[in-house]
Amino acid sequence: MASNVNPTVRRRRLGQELRKLREAKNMTAEQVAERLLVSQSKISRLENGRRSISQRDVRDLCGVYEVEDERMVDSLMQMAKDSRQQGWWHAFGDIPYSVYIGLETDAESLRMYESQIIPGLLQTPAYAEAVISGAMPESAPADIEKRVTVRTRRQDRIRDEERPLRLWAVIDEGALHRIVGSRQLMVDQLEHLIEQSHLPHVTVQVIPFEMGAHPGISGQYSILEFPDTSDSSVVYIEGVTSDLYLEKAQDVGKYSVMYEHLRAQALNVDQTREFISKMAKKHAQG
Predict the structure, then answer these.
(1) Source organism's superkingdom (predicted)?
(2) pLDDT tens-digit profile of 236-256?
């Protein structure tokens, strides 16, 4: 697959274009589904980029929407073809959060809040293995190893010299206290976290317990933004059996405002590094 073709992003862009064509015809997803003898949920999944879309699907939809511009049809058909190619993560088999990986791979910036553990993009391999093993106690060692490999591969975006991901991570103090693996492992992880925080495109802030209740109290979430203005921002909320992706401007705006409050209530960058350093020393002392 060409390095500049991200199937997840292609599906999103194609879905957005198909939604515009439907809305231009003043048709509902239900009406389109009736015309094509398919379920309404299929049309919705095609438009939100959660379902793989075939060139035949595009051709049929263009017929319903009476698209006469052959160049537009050809362009949409090519997007459908590109969207069915595989990203690097597909080589690892069935990854439940593959949609998210595709979005993260193409994102320009990522703002995230984590309350329980150190964010995946900032984890050491040993910490990642301990986290995954604890979260998935019935998984086979091979599955755990695969997930660790995928997680460390995702971190290439942080190390990318040409197009590094701009990462802003707000972490609750609880994640620093929780002993994942061992105290020495925590020392190594926290030292790594401080080291990563010195990268020019990485910002880390900690919210101490003393701040009390705050806008992130209900749980972790991430906000992804993309270099192409035609790609809407996405709020990602990870679940146990399914994940939630919010793309409506109203939803993204609400979470963005919440994040601004989180950043304002957290320790500043220098205070955060000092705080993490003290926590590392506590773990070292046992």
Answers:
(1) Bacteria
(2) 998 776 788 888 889 999 999
